Amino acid sequence: MTRTDDSRYLKGGPVAQRIIASVREDAAIATAEGFPPKLVSITVGDIAAVDVYVRNQRAKAALAGIGFEERRFAADTTAGELEAAIHGLNADPRVTGIIIQRPVPAHIPIKTLQAAVHPLKDVEGMHPASIGNIVYNQLDLAPCTAAASVELLKETGLELKGLEVVVVGHSEIVGKPIAFLLMSEGATVTVCHHMTRSLAAHARRADALFVAVGKPRLIKADMVKPGAAVIDIGINSEIGPDGETRIVGDVDTDSVKEVASWITPVPGGVGPLTVAILLRNTMVALNRQRALYRATYGVPDQIAAE
Ligand SMILES: NC(=O)C1=CN([C@@H]2O[C@H](COP(=O)(O)OP(=O)(O)OC[C@H]3O[C@@H](n4cnc5c(N)ncnc54)[C@H](OP(=O)(O)O)[C@@H]3O)[C@@H](O)[C@H]2O)C=CC1
Ligand SMILES: Nc1nc(=O)c2c([nH]1)NC[C@@H]1CN(c3ccc(C(=O)N[C@@H](CCC(=O)O)C(=O)O)cc3)C=[N+]21
């Protein structure tokens, strides 16, 4: 069976297309009403994984009718200069969304930058005031990769209530938000990290296994419960046997696919859906800004209805 026609593969492309089509409709309406969405990406330094992401953001934003601008900063830019740039974007009414590509160079505290983004323009939900929403079961705007991973699990049709889920990796942007989203859905969640004593023992209990670590082939077939759903979030570049650079995930896909009932391919799994969710979040953020304008200044139909 070839890679593409195997029904065990949970592909992100079709789900991403559905989301982008709906975002495109919302963006066209907002634009016609005088609120064109515009996303600004901030990149500091040169990182290959970020380049792939930004390239896809630009392409899909164009498809969806969302304005996109990339602001690139040299690796030696100071935190102060970056904060000033972010404040400028906050104050610019034409900019409706801001994303800070991670990682940033070590001398810049990422939390300071995330906190500088106005919460209404925070399309990733990484501002400390935004990330709390998912703790309060408010799930309409969540960190994109986490939301994409959970959305792909939903594609299996598995009942999330009571599902045994194991998340490997507990970063603020991927692992932790996945755990909170799944808790909101009623799953029983175990979170593993580098200090976990027996990763294999935990992983083997999972009906759904999420892996976001950044280590190729960390998860092997003997760590997966037969029939499980495996969501591989890793994006790692490595040199293949042919000498070409290729992208692989954190899961040893060839062996695990013989055990799992569902597995996300890399590339073609979580990645494309992450981009689509970012654009969906951009529209959620825009609509929140519009709601604030309405509440602050009033609009004729609201005033007439009072
Ligand atoms: N598809 C997509 O859209 C995206 C993909 N990614 C990819 O996902 C992966 C993870 O990204 P990110 O969360 O940002 O990475 P981080 O490096 O921030 O986090 C990695 C996590 O893995 C844990 N970890 C490290 N080694 C082990 C181990 N041997 N066993 C179990 N856990 C371990 C770390 O734990 P500890 O902190 O305790 O060391 C940490 O929680 C990367 O490959 C990245 O490229 C990231 C973002 C988006
Ligand atoms: N603040 C922040 N948020 C992120 O979510 C974030 C980030 N920083 N920094 C970089 C990582 C990496 N990341 C990717 C998302 C999609 C693809 C993607 O579209 N992948 C395609 C790649 C296809 C191709 O090669 O073009 C796929 O997997 O099929 C890749 C990588 C998001 N990240």
- CATH-defined superfamily of the largest domain: Leucine Dehydrogenase, chain A, domain 1
| Continuous helix count | 11
Number of domains: 2
> In percent terms, what proportion of residues is strand?
15-25%
Helix content estimate: 40-55%
Which small molecules are bound?
Answer: NADPH dihydro-nicotinamide-adenine-dinucleotide phosphate, 5,10-Methenyltetrahydrofolate
Q: What is the overall pLDDT average? A: 95
Report strand order across the widest sheet: 5-4-6-7-10
Tell me the number of strands.
Answer: 10
Please tell me how large the radius of gyration is: 20 Å
Q: How many strands, which pairing sense, and closed or not: the largest β-sheet?
A: 5 strands, parallel
Q: What is the string of helix and strand elements?
A: HEHEHEHHHEHEHEEEEHEHH
Account of the protein in words:
This is Bifunctional protein FolD. Homodimer. It comes from Mesorhizobium vachelliae. The protein is an alpha/beta fold and 306 residues long. It has helices at 12-32, 48-64, 79-91, 110-116, 128-131, 144-154, 175-184, 199-203, 253-256, 270-297, 300-305, and strands at 38-44, 67-73, 97-100, 164-168, 188-192, 208-211, 229-232, 236-239, 245-248, 262-263. It folds into two domains: 14-122 and 272-295, Rossmann fold; 157-260, 3-Layer(aba) Sandwich (Rossmann fold). It is built from eleven helices and ten strands. A hairpin with a 5-residue loop joins strand 8 and strand 9. Bound molecules: NADPH dihydro-nicotinamide-adenine-dinucleotide phosphate and 5,10-Methenyltetrahydrofolate.
Brief rundown of the structure:
Catalyzes the oxidation of 5,10-methylenetetrahydrofolate to 5,10-methenyltetrahydrofolate and then the hydrolysis of 5,10-methenyltetrahydrofolate to 10-formyltetrahydrofolate. With 306 residues, the chain is of the alpha/beta class.
